[in-house]
């Protein structure tokens, strides 16, 4: 739910700006500190006015909601105060919109279709796109052909010749913040101020020793330039090349498997707040040529998980997605570090150090689960500005084609594609974070935390034994070094050693 905001949505007239005719839609937001969500407000059409820099802009391709859903604040502009949501639901109107959708999510597609004919209210709820998206993803594991919307896609998967309206029937006087949210987040542009902050350290041509000393040892992010100049994939990886090389091979797209050609057809058409992301860990095994089209940058050549051979956890992925797709806040698996190289497009990154939980993110005490806003745009709308005045502000950057970002272990990070993008990412274990990884793998609840392998219970013992066999003495050496480092960090400063912390006066010792 979009919380702590009161929105004023204005449909403005066509107007001239900077000598060009521009159709503008604006959303002005005034943030409040209360934790209870306040209703959106959409004002009646007003006279032409200058754009508000504090507002939100809709994408130029944005159209009004397919079924006429309006935010709840609009109800106050309705002289009749009539909300067809309530009359359409009857006795169920006392339930929250979220609960109504949870109940409808238990139904099959046929039942949703029948129920949508009961009333205007049920028509809106039963055509909520995420319901049909879930049905497609649950039933079409082998892939799907996207047909403009998820409802049509579902019907087309079972009865291709069955006629389905490509547009929704507009319902008057239907007000719901929860249903309006999906449309709003799917159609908002990224604000310039969300993109302009760039405070990451950038380096080009540094040595391996410099990288280890300045970034890997202190566990700090860095953006590396000029690392991909010898990658064939940097030039070759476009749609035509990938479709030709991959043919009918299917890749992991969320919970389904899809051919690249079908995925690109989906990504070209879709307009939703959480576009599906192609994120495949077996791409190089499926298409060996893709594995030959790139080389690991020299800074990340040491990868100790490789001692496990075929039993190692998933560690490398090809990532493809349209603008708006990405990953919400998470920490990389198994306490590994990572690098991410963009070959096409660009990505906005936001990173928080391990001791700072991002606003709006709520990890469970054992770290097994993370609660966060439904979509990345929702996080930007509600929580991005909160970081402006933080003492520990996040590290931010836009990573473009040809650039590589180093993500140290334990760092929270969010990534959103600013345009159609293709990237390679790998997680790795080096000597600098080996001790951390071993400690993570032996946690009491490791079976719920470890990922990327079918044997979560025994991964610690397998990895430790393999390291001791291949690199005898290394674990003991690094453990001792880590203990000395921690002791040095806990050692009192000179000032603390010559003052009496209890009395607040000097303490002389001879």
Percentage of residues in helical conformation:
25-40%
Supply the helix-strand structural class.
alpha+beta
Total tally of structural domains: 2
Residue runs with pLDDT of under 50 for 5 or more positions = 1-53, 501-510
Strand content: 15-25%
Distance between the termini: 64 Å
Number of distinct helices = 20
Whole-angstrom Rg:
26 Å
GO molecular function: cis-regulatory region sequence-specific DNA binding; histone demethylase activity; metal ion binding; oxidoreductase activity
Family: Belongs to the JARID1 histone demethylase family.
InterPro entries: Cupin_8, F-box-like_dom_sf, F-box_dom, JmjC_dom, JMJD6_ArgDemeth/LysHydrox
Protein name: Transferase, transferring glycosyl groups
Question: Nutshell version of this structure?
Answer:
This protein has 510 residues and is α+β, with helices and mostly antiparallel strands.
